[in-house]
Amino acid sequence: MEKIKMTTPLVEMDGDEMTRILWSDIKELLLVPYIDLKTVYFDLGLPERERTRDQVTVDAAEATRQYGVAVKCATITPNAQRVEEYKLSQMWKSPNGTIRAILDGTVFRAPIMVRGISPVVKNWKKPITIARHAFGDVYKNTEYKVPGPGKAELVFTPEGGESIRQTIYDFQGPGVLQGQFNTAASISSFARSCFQFALDTKQDLWFATKDTISKQYDHTFKDIFQDIYGAEYDRAFRKAGIEYFYTLIDDAVARVIRSEGGFIWACKNYDGDVMSDMVSTAFGSLAMMTSVLVSPDGKYEYEAAHGTVTRHYYQYLEGKETSTNPIATLFAWTGALRKRGELDKIPALMDFADDLEAAAIAVIEGGAMTKDLAGLWEGEIPAVAVTSRQFLEAIRVELERRL
Ligand code: NAP
Ligand code: MG
Questions:
Q1: Which residue range forms the structural domain that includes residue 157?
Q2: What is the pTM (predicted TM-score) of this model?
Q3: I need a surface site. Which of 2, 179, 226, 389 has the fewest CB within 10 A?
Q4: Quick one: 199 and 256 in the same domain?
């Protein structure tokens, strides 16, 4: 078979630990034999971030702006222990944070569903994608522990203008106080990324806040979404046969649980933090969760939602075979290849991505899977737990059968 040709390269961001091992195995076994793989390679592994003083992360993000589609391996976000372990000169920032700041994007997380592993919520038939607004609110708050009686005020001083003061509370005793903010620019970017992604994936978009209680703050989110929808997306949504739906967060939670799935749920920062953990746990496994960063101007960065699986990596370093699940990392690749195929009009690349995903799912549904999934398996045939390498080889056999 002739290898599939690519016209524009993917931006490839290599990473750390166990996922770095899976990364190279996936390329060797499932991609390079079938695709004339073109990538612009950036090594975001921690040693290279240290050597380049993290410039490599910035370069990779800039390249994503230039080429439009990236695929990223999980990376270590350094903490004190990592500074010691890798002899770092600084506690480098989270690469995901750096890339997100440069692309100004929103992260969409979606579960990969297979027959035999059922969601805890029994009526969920299709994936629920969570979009989290990752800017501002409680994550950038200013807090104060009120020691005793006194007056708390909200003061805003416009540039070149008079201050506006409002009383928050007249404290009679000790308490707590918190200031939060967001910006119209960030909320607008978030809204556009969500509308864009809904169109891309042909799924309804749900958005919810507590606007009945928060009549200025949350209501502004609602208004910005509605204005952008009306001005820029209404027509395209109707043409695509999808819907934008706003409701109160309490109502959304109830509807999500009763739903069949198959939509995107846009969440404010805190709601997204909490709900994405709940939804991913209810779907089964973090190892079956993909993640894509979408910028408001339509640049894409695909990755797995999980980390570098450190515990397995230490076993690997001891020479032990591990049974680490490569599915989310594989689907990051197929997502990026499919998007590249779509943008460059290469149907063979899109078909290949579909075939590879179908092959991977077929292997699991046929009973062969990594340990994490074997523990969740409810299929009729017994599950066989295999090593990562055996699993990838089984996917290759299944892929060959389909090509
Ligand atoms: P993790 O790598 O997601 O792993 C946590 C545990 O979840 C693992 O020990 C394993 O459980 C299970 N797990 C996760 N992915 C799995 C897979 N593909 N197959 C099988 N089991 C899987 O999280 P972590 O250990 O908290 O973090 C490790 C490193 O990853 C940290 O340095 C962190 O900074 C980084 N991280 C990076 C990203 C990213 O790049 N997007 C995201 C999160 C964390 P068992 O041990 O029970 O088998
Ligand atoms: Mg969380």
A1: 143-179
A2: 0.91
A3: 2
A4: yes
